[in-house]
Design goal:
Number of domains: 1
Shape: globular
Radius of gyration: 21 Å
Largest sheet: none
Order of helices and strands: HHHHHHHHHHHHH
Structural class: mainly alpha
């Protein structure tokens, strides 16, 4: 996202509405499916326990209760970042990332020093926000660092090794360190080696990988439904005696059904809401200092 908006003239309103159009239609659609299931058989939704908030499921405002689609909590962080970033778009493009970084750092410092008890404030000041800073650093490396295949492959390898050998040390308090750093390294290494992967453009594996990547949002949101349904089938046929087989079935089924969701629902929603975009000429002209 930073790669295409940081250094160009962008209206904060346009930016934020674009994020809403991209994220909310599919999320709300699947949340309505989850609400239907919750109304009929509430124990199926968030079966691990806890209170489910219907209103907050749709507003994505964290209040300590669960969402109908529980992994929607990550979208709450995304929109918090979008608010911070959209606000920074009013500044000169040279200072936008600096303002975003300072804002995130101050929020995390506030959370660590005050330990807020309010769930919403605690959420908005969590160290998880530091992962966005790592994303910014990855962006800066990708756009400014010398494109050395050896260095980029080293970044990719070190990120993978860091993730593999430290995965057992991860908990809620240090996840930004043990997940954020290696994933930033992996991301930087892969993107900077894009030319190598493009040489395999005709490869069926690469084409399939691209399609899965395009469907990643649908896979992410739909996989709790798929895993729940697949789990019932696995138990019915006593396949749980083989954990490896069960995991493979769940992963492959989640990818397949997520792709079906992508081509049948997400694409249609994207077409509908893209066609409803307002004419950008109707907006007030921005401050000239936004122009790079």
């Amino acid at each position: 996202m930073c790669h295409v908006t940081t250094a160009r003239e962008t209206y904060p309103r346009d930016f934020f509405l674009a994020r809403i159009r991209r994220i909310i239609p599919l999320y709300w659609s699947l949340s309505l499916v989850a609400l239907t299931i919750f109304t009929i058989k509430p124990e199926i939704v968030n079966s691990s326990g806890g209170t489910t908030s219907i209103l907050n499921s749709f507003t994505l405002i964290p209040n300590g209760e669960k969402f109908l689609i529980q992994n929607g909590w990550t979208l709450s962080y995304e929109f918090l970042f979008y608010i911070i970033f959209a606000t920074a778009l009013w500044a000169n493009y040279k200072f936008r990332l600096l303002l975003v970084s300072i804002s995130i750092t101050l929020l995390v410092i506030f959370g660590l020093t005050t330990l807020p008890q309010n769930p919403t404030i605690a959420f908005a000041t969590s160290p998880i926000l530091l992962e966005f800073l790592m994303g910014i650093l990855a962006y800066l490396y990708i756009t400014h660092a010398p494109k050395s295949n050896i260095i980029n492959l080293a970044l990719l390898a070190s990120g993978l090794l860091f993730l593999i050998f430290n995965s057992t040390k991860v908990d809620g308090a240090n996840r930004s360190f043990f997940y954020g750093i290696p994933l930033a390294l992996i991301f930087s290494g892969v993107v900077c080696n894009e030319r190598i992967f493009n040489r395999l453009e005709r490869s069926k594996i690469l084409k399939a990988s691209k399609e899965i990547g395009n469907a990643s949002y649908s896979i992410y949101l739909s996989h709790p439904f798929v895993i729940a349904a697949t789990g019932i089938i696995i138990r019915k046929f006593n396949l749980e005696i083989s954990p490896t087989l069960s995991i493979l079935i769940m992963i492959s089924t989640s990818i397949f059904m997520g792709y079906i969701c992508h081509i049948t629902l997400e694409r249609k929603l994207s077409e509908i809401f893209s066609s409803k975009r307002q004419n950008p000429n109707s907006y007030k002209q921005p401050n000239k200092e936004l122009t790079p």
